[in-house]
Amino acid sequence: MPEGDTIFRAARTLNRALAGRTVTRFDSVFSQLTRAGGDLRIAGRTVERVDARGKHLLIWFSGDLVLRTHMRMHGSWHIYRPGERWQRPHADMRIVIGTPEFDAVAFSVPVAELTSARDLERNPAVRELGPDILAARFDAAEVVARIQAMAGEAIADALLDQHNVAGIGNIFKSESLFVARVDPFARVGTLPTETVARVVDAARSLMRASATQRPPGFSVYGRGGRPCRRCGTSIAHRKQGENARVTYWCPRCQAGATR
Ligand SMILES: [Zn+2]
User: How many angstroms separate the Cα of 160 from the Cα of each of 71, 171, 177?
Assistant: First the structure.
């Protein structure tokens, strides 16, 4: 699943290509986006900006209209010059926003809705998000408090809960716990506040670096059975949590990780 840093980069790329431009063509396989017509017609509007909220990508049009998309597992947005060959099959196309200079194409995006700014803030999917891990202003203490309210949860699962903090996915869950040297399976209630704060801080540092610079190589994610870059111990991996997402960790560096 794309994480907050990926969505942030996608939003920045779309913003560069589309902001300030007039939409000349709008197509979608989602009837809720195209049938509206009238007041909700997108062609003719100007793209004001594109930004991200957690894993939600928001395209803001003139006249108080917002297109919210969520990538889930396989969705992505591409930018093409008009007439350029797409890199994914037409069958995967979900939305096309055409301007004279660029076309933005959403492939395999499962969630899309048009809304006003006000209704967007009322939407539970957005309203109930925790603080955005990538936001310029970030209330780390609030995130630590939200995580600590889930005392019985494993820290790795609490990091994935978007009500605690928005934007962290499976990759940076494992990576930030490694950097902070915390056992992914430790119950939140057993961890000192400063340890939870260290994990949150690691997640923010790693994800901001990934969002704004070239994505780094990973320390543990996807490296099961290979030597820890710090101590040489084999990286362990195991399914964890409700959705059985694979957690990677170093059993030695992340002391207490005995499973
Ligand atoms: Zn290690």
Answer: 16, 10, 12
**Please, which residues have CB within 8 angstroms of residue 138's CB and are 6 or more apart in sequence?**
131, 132, 204
| Phi, psi (deg, nearest 5) at residue 236 | -90, 160
Instruction: Say yes or no to pLDDT of 1 above 70.
Output: no
CA 223 to ligand 1 centroid distance, Å: 12
Cβ-contact 220, 174 below 8 angstroms: yes
Chain position carrying tokens 């690691």: 202
Tokens found for residue 247: 């957690």
- Helix, strand, coil share (%) of the chain residues, nearest 5: 30, 25, 45
pTM reported for the whole predicted model: 0.81
What CA–CA distance (Å, rounded) separates 99 from 117? 23
Cα of 137 vs centre of ligand 1, distance in Å, is 33
Please give the structure tokens belonging to residue 146: 């939200």
- Residue whose tokens read 């990286």: 235
What percentage of the chain carries pLDDT values higher than 90? 80
Asked whether 193 and 147 are in contact (CB, 8 A), the reply is: no
Question: Is 87:16 a contact under the CB 8 Å cutoff?
Answer: no
From the CA of 234, how far away is ligand 1's center (Å)? 8
Q: What is the spatial order of strands in the sheet that 76-80 belongs to?
A: 25-28, 93-98, 103-107, 76-80
Known catalytic residues are 2-3, 55
